[in-house]
Amino acid sequence: xxxxxxxxxxxxxxxxxxxxxxKLTNTRPILDQVDFYLPQLSHMVLHLEKELPMEAMxxxxxxxxxxxxxxxxxxxxxxYGALDEHxxxxxxxxxxxxxxxxxxxxxxxxxxxxxxxxxxxKVGRDCHIQQISKAEMGLILKADRxxxxxxxxxxxxLVEESFEG
Length: 165
Known about the structure:
Helix content is 79%, strand content 0%. The protein is mainly α.
């Protein structure tokens, strides 16, 4: 997290770092470290959209949310608190409010609904149909999480562009 902050102006570095961290989202040390820096990470995702490459950051956060329900719930409450703090009023920031609302919708889709491939895999596993190995299943789920996170961050950037225009 410190490297992301120090090199926040360098888009290529931040993108590559987020990509590398995204590959390690299922490992306990990464989840523990990110959990420790969750307030800082949340602040960067919510408030620094002009300074950071948000697509890579959002994808990283969504991959973490798909990997850890603990992280997803903590991130949800931080975003929900920011949403309440920036609701339309005298001191509220409508841009941050809109961003928080969009993140909450994507986070809900990520956490609650998951993805079709993940659901089919769980059904197959529950029925004791083991046609693929555990390693293959892990690869399928990892690819599915990456696809869903990339899809949701692309959707966020389209909504933000329409908000600015």
